[in-house]
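Quick board copy: two proteins, each given as sequence then tokens.
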Amino acid sequence: MKKVLISLFAIVSMNVHAFNGTIGRGAALSYDGTVDASSIEKQSINVKNSHSVSIPAGSAVTLDLTADDGASVIISATAGLSPLCIMETACAVGAICACQTNGKLDSALFDVGAGSAVAGKRFYMSSVNAGYLAARAADVATEVPGGIFYDAAAASGSVQVYIKL
């Protein structure tokens, strides 16, 4: 009897979440069946700015391999580096700041030097402008994408992205 009750509870719980509640990775449906934008989960880590200047909000950062502590970050235009996260706010030299690793970000820095951003296509760290995101005409085997563009953009500036790091 106990197993029957547990099974019944599990089935009812699954049905409740299927109609209203968590879907995907941290989003929830509202009662009218649409995604509640305020519920989209954003994950961040704390990092230390070990770069020689303040890092602007929206900058893609990578690990500072000279610090070798797993928390220090820099902005770099070195081709092939993997983004660790994107800064949520400006970060002063030596400061500990929040850096987003997953979820929607409304304002990331974009460099059009390698091509226009296409909504739904992958973004990479720019190998021209340190801290900026870039598009690629084709995926490059030696580079790790950081997520996808939400917006199309034909000029450098700010774009919406979905980060998957």
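And the next:
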Amino acid sequence: MKVSVPKDVGNTSKKPILPLVPEPIKSDKKEDLTTVSLDSDPADHNSAQVKFSFKGLIGDHETPREILAWRCNVERALIGLDLTNGTNQHNMAKQFMRGSALSCFESAAAVPLTNHKVSAIVHAETAVNNFPPVGNAAHDTGVFGNLQAVVTTASNRELVDHLSECYGVDVVTNLLNDVVRDLLPNKTLQRVKRHSA
């Protein structure tokens, strides 16, 4: 019986995409770091504050490990700042990115927020269309006027205004995960998936 050895075995000339041993930490310049003051107890703004610094994400040259660490740091910052509103989380998360990472974040935001805006408009217009017509005994002009105002408001709202809704925090979480997914090389995710199973 003949045993064949894969070409990759023993080949140490290729550097792994996500090595098992952490790469040496490069010291970052102070101007490259983002610093926020976090409350030790996020629910109590009178609690002791801790300064937390981490490197912002540019997206062009970070290693996979740096991208994953950035994602954890952003989550820690959002929790420590007690940002429980999607709009506030969105605005703060943008402060932790530059370059292609910020472009990816903003372009990824357009799709779900447009969907939410369209859904709000459709629901408002459906309510107007289902309302009893003028001349019907059940028609109330005050209520009908309010329904028409809701359609106008839904149509005029900016996309980011939808982040203040109850689903806003989930949208921001998904956007941050999209940035990580888009910046990580595909092979990294495949290897992690293959080895973790």
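Board note added afterward: The chain has one domain: 31-196.
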